[in-house]
């Protein structure tokens, strides 16, 4: 099963993208209460794309695809047509620093890496594609 | 509304509600800052009614903690759900925040 939603890269579309994934996952039999790690990861990735992929004057589109396989893997793909950018390449923030030393921000992608079972990036046909996989136990 | 605010024993109790995401976080930040701007230096943030927090919300908490530290105030948070606890763990926030299981326990820290 595979379902894709394409909308413009605006913060006000965040909830529509999340609802798309929630509805897809619940259709596959995933308990929506177990979706928080996926929602969180998707939000972090989308906010990054919305903030940096396009110019403010001309926001492009984002596509969010969901798929489900026989191994109970929920796979989410986020695609944009902005300049090549690998969000996974940036070093993780140091989470052992004291309050005084901690920088505001930079936690989003770290949370994504930790909450999902697999995260990967590819640049293909002029698009940035971030793929995230979360495995759900057999119901 | 994502916040309830009350003052008890001269402590500002801020109860976070619902979902704090990239859309709602700026409003939450503004509301908490307006409390801090009044020169208040004792704050308890209660997570009991919080369903979801993303890095945008964590950012607000970090800002509040830094401001509180700057005025040598006290910030205690309480009642984290299992999911939020995990997010705090991954973020390294458990080491920098004073966290209590219940509001009663948190209030006792201000005595």
The main sheet of chain B orders its strands as 1-2-3-4-5
How large a portion of the residues of chain A is in β-strands, by DSSP E?
25-35%
Tell me the fraction of residues in β-strands of chain B, as a range: 25-35%
Element-level helix/strand string of chain A? EHHEEHEE
Terminal Cα span of chain A: 18 Å
- Radius of gyration of CA atoms of chain A, rounded to a whole number: 15 Å
Helical percentage of chain B = 40-55%
Q: Secondary-structure element sequence of chain B?
A: EEHEHEHEH
Structural class of chain B: alpha/beta
Mean of all residue-level pLDDT scores of chain A:
93
Question: First CA to last CA of chain B: what distance?
Answer: 30 Å
Radius of gyration of chain B, taken over Cα atoms and rounded to an integer in Å: 13 Å
Major sheet summary line of chain B: 5 strands, mixed
Overall number of strands of chain A: 5
Number of helices of chain A: 3
Q: Outline the biggest β-sheet of chain A.
A: 5 strands, antiparallel
Structural class of chain A: alpha+beta
Concise structural overview:
The complex is a heterodimer of chains A (139) and B (111). By secondary structure, chain A is α+β, with helices and mostly antiparallel strands.
Give an overview of the whole structure.
The complex is a heterodimer of chains A (139) and B (111). Chain A is of the alpha+beta class. Chain A is built from 3 helices and 5 strands; from the N terminus they run E-H-H-E-E-H-E-E. The longest helix of chain A has 17 residues, at 36-52. In chain B, helix 2 links the parallel strand 3 and strand 4 (74-78). Chain B is built from 4 helices and 5 strands. In chain B, helix 1 (25-37) runs parallel beside helix 2. By secondary structure, chain B is α/β, with parallel strands linked by helices. The mean pLDDT of chain B is 94. Classes of the chains: A alpha+beta (139), B alpha/beta (111). At the A-B interface, helix 2 and helix 3 of A face helix 2 and helix 3 of B.
